[in-house]
């Protein structure tokens, strides 16, 4: 029973940390491409269901822990774009998906991506995410009673156990939000997500200006560390 409980708690921690730590960036990406509230809800729901399904299927097929996830650097890159509509963005996403699948099937291309130096990949990741780090100080001026306690909580928990720092901030953020009454700003009642079909539009300028950088950022800054882990494990 204790082993099963440990597995369940580890899985819950992984989901909450992975989700809570980056879903805000996905929401910012949705806003950047002009997604409506319903489209944003549909976007998040589709991500959750697809990640759950693929993680369960791959884990069952290969009998090893496998978690699929969205590209946080990719979402940050989308959030920094302007003038791209949701339909054109969807077209870019489809091209990126095709390129990633092609990379997996065409081994020389995957090996070429893997040769990108780690410092360059790290610099790409830092360049994309730095705006979200700096944004903390902007929010500090607007909501000091929320931001300051969470910053203190993050560093205190990190001193004790770095693996649960984000989880601690996630739980603390929810508690402080309700304590300050900030939850009253939520529009409409809570309910199940409704899926909306969005017809993609393939715009050459967006495919070149967004899809290709998105592919490179995702492969270099997020997938390269995965290659390193697999190599270290002898896979």
Overview of this protein structure:
There is one protein chain. By secondary structure, this protein is an all-alpha fold. It has one domain. Helices cover 75% and strands 0% of the residues. The protein is built from 10 helices and no strands. Helix 2 packs across helix 3, helix 5 crosses helix 6 and helix 8 runs antiparallel to helix 9. It is globular. The mean pLDDT is 79.
Number of domains: 1
Summarize the helix and strand pattern as letters.
HHHHHHHHHH
Beta-strand percent range:
under 5%
Overall pLDDT metric:
79
Helical fraction equals over 70%
Looking at the chains present, what oligomeric state does this protein adopt? single chain
Class derived from helix and strand content: mainly alpha
- Major sheet description: none
Round the Cα radius of gyration to an integer and report it.
19 Å
Number of strands: 0
The low-confidence parts are none
User: What is the terminal-to-terminal distance?
Assistant: 31 Å
Question: Which of globular, elongated, flat, extended, rod-shaped describes the shape?
Answer: globular
Number of helices: 10
């Amino acid at each position: 029973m204790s082993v099963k409980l440990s597995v369940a708690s580890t899985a819950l921690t992984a989901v909450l940390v992975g989700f809570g730590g980056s879903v805000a960036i996905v929401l910012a990406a949705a806003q950047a491409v002009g997604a409506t509230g319903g489209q944003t809800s549909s976007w998040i729901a589709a991500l959750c269901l697809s990640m759950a399904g693929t993680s369960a299927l791959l884990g069952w097929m290969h009998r090893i822990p496998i978690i699929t996830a969205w590209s946080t650097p990719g979402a940050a890159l989308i959030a920094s774009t302007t003038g791209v509509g949701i339909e054109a963005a969807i077209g870019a996403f489809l091209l990126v998906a095709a390129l990633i699948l092609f990379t997996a099937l065409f081994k020389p291309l995957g090996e070429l991506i893997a040769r990108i130096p780690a410092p360059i990949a790290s610099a790409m990741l830092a360049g994309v995410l730095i705006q979200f780090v700096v944004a903390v100080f902007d929010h500090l001026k607007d909501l000091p009673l929320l931001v300051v306690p969470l910053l203190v909580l993050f560093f205190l928990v990190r001193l004790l156990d770095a693996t649960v720092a984000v989880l601690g901030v996630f739980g603390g953020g929810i508690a402080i939000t309700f304590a300050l009454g900030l939850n009253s700003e939520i529009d409409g009642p809570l309910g199940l997500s409704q899926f909306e079909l969005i017809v993609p539009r393939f715009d050459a300028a967006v495919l070149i200006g967004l899809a290709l950088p998105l592919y490179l950022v995702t492969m270099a800054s997020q997938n390269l560390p995965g290659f390193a882990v697999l190599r270290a494990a002898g896979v």
